[in-house]
Amino acid sequence: MTLYGVGLGPGEADLVTVRGRAVLERADVVYSPGRLSRSVATEHVPPERIGDVDFPMTRAEGKLRQAWKEAAAAIAPHAREGTAAFVTLGDPNVYSTFGHLRRTLGAFHPEVEVEVVPGVSTVTAFATALGVEIASGASLALREGDRGAAPTGPDRLLLFKVTDVPATHEKLTAAGYHVQYGRRLFMEQGETRVTDDPAELADRDYYTLAYAEKRGLDDEPVTAAFEGAETETGVESGPDTETTAQTDGGSLASPGGRDGSTESGPEVSPR
Ligand SMILES: C[S@@+](CC[C@H](N)C(=O)[O-])C[C@H]1O[C@@H](n2cnc3c(N)ncnc32)[C@H](O)[C@@H]1O
Fold this sequence. Notes:
Bound molecules: S-adenosylmethionine
Number of helices: 6
CATH architecture of the largest domain: 3-Layer(aba) Sandwich
Largest sheet: 5 strands, parallel
């Protein structure tokens, strides 16, 4: 009948959505592309309903295409005759392996229906974990920072796959960014780390991201004027009759790092 691509969220079992869990509970078989996604899935699915698919650790395109063809051929009969799910960490449509599966099924098994259940992506979860606010009107670009890469340009960057934090850090700070790092955010496996000190994350861990913000951005939201106010009545208040400000873009978050200070972000696990 259907193959569901289910986003599991960043790694804690209770950040799987209600809809995602319902799909996992009723799926005949649940495939996972890796150890971590499997360990989240098994919090909701008994091990006998977990299916096996193998992916080689290679960048060789031919081998990867072959592996996806084999995975699609193994999954298609289950998705045709019943309900199958394929889980990914975060969201299935954000920097995810699920796209390969969907394209391969579309090419070789077009009769299989595919539906996606979105998950909590690190694209949004990082903001809470790092104590950052992406305010209404701000831009945010996604990039990859693997093996010391440090793409620059946009005012705010979220870098995935930051496997060499010190090398990436050196380049980003030289280019005028203040950078914070998050490792294993909202993840049960391993230690959650949030820091702006690259020395603390010198070892390689694939589940590391970086948020880089150009120093000196001058885009304070209107309510930033309240910060540091001693009492509620100690600051100018009352409705602003000169503007028609939208009220859905505000936030109660108390973000850090906007001024490039090194004391931004939570000191403890974001859990
Ligand atoms: C291939 S991308 C997958 C993104 C995922 N589909 C999502 O929506 O969040 C993998 C990269 O995401 C980041 N990432 C994923 N989960 C993470 C987590 N819990 N904590 C920190 N970074 C994470 C890391 O940078 C990792 O290298």
